[in-house]
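so im writing up the methods section and need the asparaginase record in one place, dumping it here so i stop losing it
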Amino acid sequence: MIRTLSSASSLDEISVSYDVPVVDPTSVPKVLYGHRTSLDSLCDPEWSQESRVLVLYTGGTIGMVRNDRGKLAPIPRELETNIRRYPHMHDDSYATKRFGCNGNTPLVLPDCKEKRRVAYWVYEYEPLLDSSNMTMDDWIRIAKDIRGVYEMFDGFVVLHGTDTLAYTASALSFMLENLGKPVVITGSQIPIFETRSDGRDNFIGSVIMAGSYNIPEVTVFFNNKLYRGNRTTKVSTGRLQAFDSPNMPPLAIAGISIQGEVVVLVLRDATKRGVILVNTTQCMHGAVDTIYETGEALVSAGVIAGLDMTPEAALTKLSYVLAKSDWDYDTKKRMMMRNLRGEMTVVGQEDEGENQELDVVSAISRALQLSSSDDVERIRDLLVPTLFFTAVSNCDIKRLEEIFSNGAEVNLLDVSGWSALHMAACDGIAEVVTWLLQHGASVHVRDKQGQTPLKIAVENDHHKVVELLVQTGAHLTESPLRLGEVLVSAAAADNVERLKSYHIAGADLSCADPCGRTALHAACTVGSEECVRFLLEAGVPTTTRDRTDLTPAMCAQVNNHDHLARLIDEQEE
Ligand SMILES: NC(=O)C[C@H](N)C(=O)O
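--- predicted struct ---
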């Protein structure tokens, strides 16, 4: 089982930092824009059968080919063409049967016994880069590209050269604020086309991670291991185990610390001038420590202890923090000391007082006369999920806090694939939903029917909850045609509350069903004045004609609801 400590816990919508403006759709690269225009097919409800992954191919050895002189260089459009030929990377017969044979047929991974098949698209950068030639602008481009098509995919894979991969991973972890979907970065030491290559396993593993697991953060997948992105560092230019995450379990091993040679007085001047200095270790294992005189002297000179952050994470975190123009100097310093995305281990006040044993665990352990801590641990693992779901349905926030501090996984699923957020969204308790979102619950988790918490909240007309979920980046996944159908049936049932739910969830209320009928046609047909008034206030078009060439006003007249036809006329005037 894959466990993750979610790092996204804000109620804001996903955004990209480093001073990047809100993404302008016209700036989305052509191929991505192409996907945008085929949004309909991507959002088709049938699609819940597969998860969707976008592979952003930026360059690196993984897609390079040896030239006549034996030198490696990337060749445009070579990667996807080759992948289509590898049966273990693309199931052509499944893809053709499901999606037909057109220019936009996705690649599909063969059945890996995961929940759903994973369909994926490769978006190739131009030019393809050796990562040692990448700059901060390239990090920004990747972040913007992900933001631009964020709602259309369940996860993202970034194919990247290994030389600066850890820097990009750290940078993206800070830049992609409130990330709710997996972003997996990978590459290889040997090109994917060569007989012996780590590239194929890294590629397939990353696509599976991005498509089948709910790990909403920036990670690095390499040599069969998934690392937190901002914890990784490149450790070898030649070995297939090119990356490591020395200070993050399960690889963290206590070791000796490093002492730096510094001239403290030079440093004190700098911090007085408002320069932010961070002390990090180059060592693989361990953290900078103030038990040494030199370390203590650095702290007294105003240098921030970077604890066990990798130099890659420290550099990119600094760039991120410095670019935050709305933070003053003290806030920036405080943020550098705080664990923002799981990039460093902060022990101390945050942990104090937590981890008190749950009363019920203690009681059962006593009743069973358990003496070993392993046995108590097992009882806790068994009980915590049940207690957690019970606290959610009882809306018991105090209990939720207590269970959470005892290790409850906030995105845990029950047998029907429901998370605690699905449950709270169904009950419509905004307080619990807010608590879950603040503690890292993902709004993108789907149950076995492919339903998100947002869909559940909409279907139960919990408007406040719908609003909270949308603010956190949730979005509807139905195609416009399917939306047309549900809106028409809501209006036909005189259900204005449902129309409001869809409206708050961001649905376009003018969507038509397969007969060309809109919610306004249906409301006029059945004579629902409340629905007609609501739709007109929402500004839906009034002149749309259905397949039988009727406008909503004509439907009202045919069914003897002349007053509704008049309402529409007044609106048109
Ligand atoms: N293995 C690699 O990908 C190294 C290559 N020079 C790069 O970083 O792009």
